[in-house]
Amino acid sequence: MRKLIPIVLTSLCLAWSVTALGDDSTSEPKRQEMRLYKINKDGITQRLRFTTKKSRTAGCHNLMKRARLYRAMQFGFTQCRIYAVKDCAQDSLMEFKREKEDEQVTDLTQGYSWYPIGEHERGELVRSWQCE
Question: Are 124 and 71 contacting, i.e. CB atoms less than 8 angstroms apart?
Answer without folding.
Answer: no
